[in-house]
Amino acid sequence: MDGPFLMCIEDVFCRNQGRVVTLTGRIERGRVRKGDEVEIVGFGAGAVVSVTDIEACRRCIDEASAGMNVDLSTSGVAAGAVERGQVLAAPGSISEHTGFAADIALLSEEDGAAEIRTGERLHFHIRGAVVEGRLTLSQETDVLHPLHRGDVTITLDRSVALEDGQFFAFRHRGRAAGSGVVTLRGTGTRSAG
């Protein structure tokens, strides 16, 4: 996929008494090279780190591109400052948000969906992040029933890396409930990253 580098962090490992932090994941788009600077985005991180080594299929390589599962060794960040669900990206290419508008679709009742009302607390699955948040239905809608669609506003407890048109899933009362598509234009919910 074309575009600036982006990889969701799936796991974090420390070596050499925490001096080397290795971040694993699948590259969604773009490419990264040894020596590149990348930004950690999400959960208020906002740190820029250097890629010191790249490993794929247990081999050290100089460059990795979209679709590859890699381990990226970094310098300039403490292990506790990085966690699953954040993303590595080309600096300035993606921002984190605490809220967004979305078009959501509920599953059937048999598949786990139930009625959803304004103020409901849900678990949102956005890339590798799982974040709690509150849902607000549009003013024209009092309740959203299984198998229905609706426009909503979502306010998250923690900021995550988001892009317009990005897909996400959500759980309600511990069960899979539906999915949606992010709309960022005009939401005014960007967090400082």
Automatic annotation (TrEMBL):
Residues 93-183 form the Translation elongation factor EFTu/EF1A C-terminal domain. The keyword Transferase does not apply. Keywords: Elongation factor, GTP-binding, Nucleotide-binding, Protein biosynthesis. Residues 22-89 form the Translation elongation factor EFTu-like domain. This is EF-Tu/IF-2/RF-3 family GTPase. It comes from Streptomyces achromogenes.
